Amino acid sequence: MHFAFDRAERGNMCGIVAYIGKKDATPILINGLKRLLYRGYDSFGFAVMNEKNNIDYFKKPGRLDEEEKNLSKMGLEGATGISQSRWATHGEPNQVNAHPHVDCREEIALVHNGIIENYATLKAWLKEHGHKFRSDTDTEVIAHLIEEHNNGDLLKAVQKALSLVEGTYGLGIISKHEPNTLIGARKGSPLAVGVVKNGEYILASDPAAIIEHTKKVIYLDDGEVVKLTRKGMHITNLENKKVQKQAQEIQWDLEQIEKTGFDHFMLKEIFEQPQTIENAIRGRALINENRIQLGGVSDWLDFLTNVDRVVFLACGTSWHAGLIGEYLFEHIAGIPSEVEYASEFRYKSVPIDTRTAYFVISQSGETADTLESLRKIKQGGAKVFGIVNVVGSSITRETDAGVYLHAGPEIGVASTKAFTSQVTVLSQLAILLGVRRGKAVPKEVRSRIDALVKIPLQVQEILDQNEKIKQLAQKYYKFNNFLYLGRGFNFPTALEGALKLKEISYIHAEGYPAAEMKHGPIALIDENMPVVVVATDTEDVIYQKVVSNIEEVKARSGNIIAIATEGNESIKDLVTEVIYVPKTNGYLTPLLNVIPLQLLAYHIAVIRGCDVDKPRNLAKAVSVE
């Protein structure tokens, strides 16, 4: 069932771009691939069909920008080609293991995202049939399988080969025997066709590589194979049954994925948060009517109002948003809730409860573990709802209903604006269900909605302190260990702050509930362990408990950086540094408190010389296990 959204790895991962048309393919492949490099990669490669209908290819470990000037001299000329930026797992990142991969005669070339789980068995079988392998990858098996079954029809050979494959794939394939053909196939790894015009197409794993040429895209579903020629497009399943697909419109513009004057995409995306939070509120938080309206779940409100429990499933930063969702749903809506790591849930022997509402949260909508958890729930007969940023992604097509973030493309690997948009959507869901469950009087609803619509301007107030936070980073960038503490709604904020620091600066950082510090981590605290404490809500009883935790750190010579509410002067006597944030409703404090933590992590990473947009070993869309 498709996502009724509102409109208001192991294995090889990362970027695939392929082209067929009348233009020179290489520049199109290079520019498209450059738009996908934010995903993280350690090697890259190209294969182009030349005028003699032979395949010329080039691949190499390292950075594309270091080789881009040389590519124009290598004779990769032709109007059909494939390319990939790879993040290695099967086989080290060297020239042999980089993509594209070819068959024995170098007559078939392909690029692949995903994992072939039965590649060892297939490889042994192919070797018995005389095939010679060059690489240590699982991907090369596919090229030889297609060669083995190719009797003059590339599409049928691909269908037959993939019927033998177990695992996930997003594929771009060319063959010298059909020089005017480009094949794409998808199972578990995203793939879309950009329709430039009839006879000219771009095949890519991310619409960011397509939008420069067209906004008209067709998203492939699992088990589908597309044949692209200069005569048109033909989509089938593996049994060669024709599939009808409708094109969709990309909802964002090219300039949204440009840096527009910022040094890094991550900084740009941090500074976009007043607008992206506003986007997540607009048309939904109706202050004049004192209500929340979420069109994507409007048909499911009776079900959601009467569920016994809510379970959030996510990974990484989205899991932290889900943990805030747990606090929100229990505090505001009175619904027992919990958050699960999707990577654990998919393998747990857990009963699927039809009286539970399951929410899957993912920026990309392609997170492999989250997708598999979704499918497990659906198989169990329960309802699944999505909170996703990318329109047309797999989660949007497989869930029952859900809500879009409208955050625009997030290029930086370390998520920032998607996190705050997720929390904004979860806040509105909690308010909406709280009203329907009779957990709030109109005055409380108005107070909550009023506080929510003020958040974008308050975020901007924090961003105006960017230079101060940058100076603070200068004092702390040499430390190699940090502890982040928070309580209540801001325990997940502490987790997210620690994750940001470790992701992009490679500094070891841990987030803890502040009260748990004395149950172990307090042994680590000395003058060499900075402690970041989220200490807002001065009128809350929890604040007094946090102050006690601060005193414990101070007694052990810890350097304390506090995130505090404006007007709290007394905290200056207890801590080393203070970053102030505006006052808001307690349940919304994570939306403000995370902003200085994002900026602190960013500036520390930059000072340490780290590549903040493409941290080592990380990828943007984790579309494999």
Q: Kindly report how far apart the N and C termini lie.
A: 24 Å
| Average pLDDT metric | 89
Name of the CATH homologous superfamily of the largest domain: Aminohydrolase, N-terminal nucleophile (Ntn) domain
Radius of gyration: 25 Å
> Stretches where pLDDT falls below 50 for ≥5 residues?
1-12
| CATH second-level architecture of the largest domain | 4-Layer Sandwich
Strand line-up across the major sheet? 4-3-5-2-11-10-12-15
> What is the SS-derived class?
alpha/beta
CATH topology assignment of the largest domain: Glutamine Phosphoribosylpyrophosphate, subunit 1, domain 1
Instruction: Please describe the biggest sheet, giving its number of strands, its sense, and whether it closes into a barrel.
Output: 8 strands, antiparallel
> Structurally, how many domains make up the residues?
3
Give the tally of β-strands: 27
- State the helicity in percent bands: 25-40%
Query: What is the beta-strand fraction?
Result: 15-25%
Shape summary: globular
**CATH class placement of the largest domain:** Alpha Beta
General description of the model:
- The protein has 18 helices and 27 strands.
- It is an alpha/beta fold and 625 residues long.
- The chain folds into three domains: 11-250, Glutamine Phosphoribosylpyrophosphate, subunit 1, domain 1; 265-461, 3-Layer(aba) Sandwich (Rossmann fold), CATH 3.40.50; 465-625, 3-Layer(aba) Sandwich (Rossmann fold), CATH 3.40.50.
- Strands 4-3-5-2-11-10-12-15 form an eight-stranded antiparallel sheet. A six-stranded parallel sheet has the order 1-22-21-20-18-19, with helices on both faces. Strands 6-7-8-9-13-14 form a six-stranded antiparallel sheet.
- Helix 4 crosses helix 5 (154-163) and helix 14 (442-463) packs parallel to helix 18 (589-607).
- Mean pLDDT is 89; it is low at 1-12.
